[in-house]
Amino acid sequence: MKRKMKKLCVCAVLCFLMLSPFTLFAGGQREGSAAGNGGGKPKVTLWATGSDNVRMLFEKLIDEYNAKPGSTSVVELQFVMSGSGGQTLSDRIAAAKLAGKTDTDFDLLAENGSALASYVDKAGGDLFVPLDFSKIPNYANVKMKSGFFTDCVVPYRGTTVVMAYDSVRLPNPPKTWAELDAWITSHPGRFAYNPPGSGGSGAGFVNLALYKDLPPEAKVSTDEKWVEQWGPGWDWLKSIHPYLYTSGGKVVYPNKNQGTLDLLINKEVDLIPAWADQVLTNISRGILPESTKIYQLTPALNGTDVVLAVPNIGGGAEKTYDFINFMISPAAQKICLETIFAVPVIDASLIDSTYKTMVKDLDISGFSVISNGKLGDVRNQYWDKNIARLP
Amino acid sequence: MRKPKWKTNLYIALMLAPALLLTMGIIVYPIINTVIRSFSSPEDGSFTLANYVFLLTDDVSMENIAYTLWIVVVTVVLSILISYVLALYLRFYDTKISKFIGTIYLLPRFVPSLVAVYAMITIIRDSGFLNRVSRLFGYNFKPGLMYNARGIILMNLWFNIAFATMIIVAALSSIPDSMVESARDVGARKINVFLNMILPLSFKDVMVAMTFIFMSNVSSFTTPFVMGGNNPIMLGVYLRKQFSEYSNYEIAAALSVIMFLFSSVSAIIYIYTNLKEKEWEKAN
Q1: Nearest CA in chain A to B241
Q2: Closest CA in chain A for residue B251
Q3: Cross-chain residue pair B147–A250, CB shorter than 8 Å
Q4: Least confident segment among A131-135, A197-201, A373-377, B169-173
Q5: Which of A227, B48, B133, B186 has a 20 to 30 A CA-CA distance from A379?
């Protein structure tokens, strides 16, 4: 009997052993499930990715749309949380496309305009269907036409990295790159940015350092030749390293967008690059004090429009037009603004909301877009090897 | 025992089949797939050792491996030491305090790990609870525990002491009071009772606890990701980087295999100590 117990124990250990490292690597593939059809209207599956606030936004918008009497389709959300499987959304669409499938449920995609390049990199140039804008009447109100695949996408909100600071501790924040450089070196330990691989605000900051003096075409190119031009940017990032936030005697770059925000919340630093919507959400919830302010550097940190696009392996563009049209209506734009402080894509005068003042300085048409697709991996790897390891 | 008939055997096989198939599908197949991928070249999928060569020669990778092993070994040693003392106290001292600790020491097992990690951070970060208390008294104490190995080890202890204590307490409970008392009656000193009776009798269970702590910490992710620094990083975080930040799927696969091998070493030690019969046990 005793021996049997031992054998069982050994088996249990072996099972545990097999599971532990592999579960990390073999992690989640999830497939969309087909749900019931609402009163004969066609079903549109919307695929989106981002942080949890984006999921909340879409749930709200879709409830609103599906409950609308005039809606011509039933929208269902498939959300891929960024950081856990965000990358696999482009991989999944590419895999379906390359496998020759044409009748998938990838009906509609919501994604950062600057990220579309990586979809096309993987799945081919014909992935997105050109749209018939005459069937989207509200498109006439959209102020900013996307810089990427303009004929195939409709922007529905803007999002940008900004500088966030506490106006009590820092009455006059540095406005230009030169001022920022001088401020960081004269205030050791009061500035932090997160590793570029761990969140978009750190990536935006590093991108600006690398691209600010490069020609405009470099910012939207995935050509490897630009990697050689990053030298001065890397040198600058190395030069500010000793003056950044320290803990336990070492310079530290806190992981994730929230990591730097936590430092600002806990008054450990005075100035950080951060996503505008995350800062504004934290202020509105009282997590960051009212004295927290945001502003844009000159030259501006990375911003992008977030767009809706129709992959050519889904159910076709026709059934999605009504929902796209809804997304850029004043009612939906108001929901975006009030749920996640999204920068509206239509004229602010059309939206009736007191939240407008909070984003009034963030003009979507002035956004500086850096879209370097797969070069982002090169950037992250170089940063981890050369900046993170500085003493 | 009666010899089972073939019908019974068939019945057993049928009952086991779903579990077996599931295991093959979700454990064995991905493992084989991962091992194959770890030997594949990213360009054309041909056989190569380059992924392993990279991991075992690259500076960053070697630093991460050493760092991980160091943290895990320190975690194992400290949690076993602390747990053993705690278990001895719970087993042999019958006071109100020991009873109270006996009821609450398992609590950490029921707190979700992410919640526990964030709770710990609010206390030990440089602007956290400890710092605020110190400022009430006019000091500015900065624990310096965040973003380095010390914080990760502290958190690991928080998770593992409860678990190790649970196992060791169970082992100590199976030592009858009468045995200890009779040894004391014939004049054995406390230290001798401990070294010659209690320690050998609980040794195996200590090995079990060590093995499990080793394995669960070699591949841990949450704590090092949220509390760790930027360099070096533990292998769980490094694996995620290779996988979802650099898109080096082949290297990620090789790294999984290496982590698997680390766990295997501890499992082999465990199996060896477990199957080895003690001389005096054979009489049972």
Answers
A1: A197
A2: A25
A3: yes
A4: A373-377
A5: B48
B244 part of contact set with chain A, CB < 8 Å: yes
Residue A299 has pLDDT above 90, yes or no: no
SS (H, E, C) chain B: CCCCCHHHHHHHHHHHHHHHHHHHHHHHHHHHHHHHHHCECCCCCCECCHHHHHHHHCHHHHHHHHHHHHHHHHHHHHHHHHHHHHHHHHHHCCCHHHHHHHHHCCHHHHCCHHHHHHHHHHHHCCCCHHHHHHHHCCCCCCCCCCCCHHHHHHHHHHHHHHHHHHHHHHHHHCCCHHHHHHHHHCCCCHHHHHHHHHHHHHHHHHHHHHHHHHHHHHCCCHHHHHHCCCCCCCHHHHHHHHHHHCCCHHHHHHHHHHHHHHHHHHHHHHHHHHHCCCHHHCCC
Peptide bond preceding A42 in cis form (omega within 30 of 0): no
B245–chain A nearest CA distance, Å: 6
Segment 18-37 of chain B within 8 Å of chain A by CB:
27, 30-31, 34
Closest A-chain CA to B26: A26
Quote the percentage of chain A above a pLDDT of 90: 45
3-state secondary structure of A185: helix
* Res A7 pLDDT > 70: no
Regarding beta strands A74-81 and A303-309, do their DSSP bridges make them parallel or antiparallel, or are they unpaired?
unpaired
All residues of chain B having their beta carbon less than 8 Å from the beta carbon of residue A380 are 241, 245-246
User: Residue A235: what pLDDT?
Assistant: 96
Per-residue pLDDT tens digits for A318-367: 999 999 999 999 999 999 999 888 888 888 888 888 888 888 777 777 77
Give just the sign of the alpha carbon dihedral B141, B147, B148, B151.
positive
Task: Write phi, then psi, for A309 (nearest 5 degrees).
Answer: -140, 155
Contact B148 A381 (CB under 8 A): no
Size of interface A-B (CB pairs under 8 A): 117
Query: Which segment of A3-7, A48-52, B38-42, B131-135 scores lowest on mean pLDDT?
Result: A3-7
For all residues of chain A together, what is the average pLDDT? 85
For the beta carbon of residue A104, count every other beta carbon within 10 angstroms: 17
Average pLDDT over residues A33-52: 72
Q: What is the pLDDT of residue B1?
A: 56
The answer, yes or no, to whether residue B3 has pLDDT greater than 70, is no
What chain A residue is nearest to B205 in terms of C-alpha separation? A9
pLDDT band at B278 (very low <50, low <70, confident <90, very high): low
> Is A380 an interface residue toward B (CB < 8 Å)?
yes
Cα distance between residue A246 and residue A262, in whole Å: 14
**A146, A247 in Cβ contact below 8 A?**
no
Q: Buried b vs exposed e over B150-165: b needs ≥16 C-beta within 10 Å? A: bbbbbbbbbbbbbbbb
Q: Which residues of B touch A16 (CB under 8 A)?
A: 212, 215
Across the interface, whether the CB atoms of A17 and B263 are under 8 A apart is answered yes
The pTM score is 0.77
Give CB contacts under 8 A, 24+ apart, made by B102-107. B105/B161, B105/B162, B105/B165, B105/B166, B106/B162, B106/B166, B107/B162
Tell me which of B62, B63, B147 to substitute to probe the interface with A (most A C-beta atoms closer than 10 Å).
B147
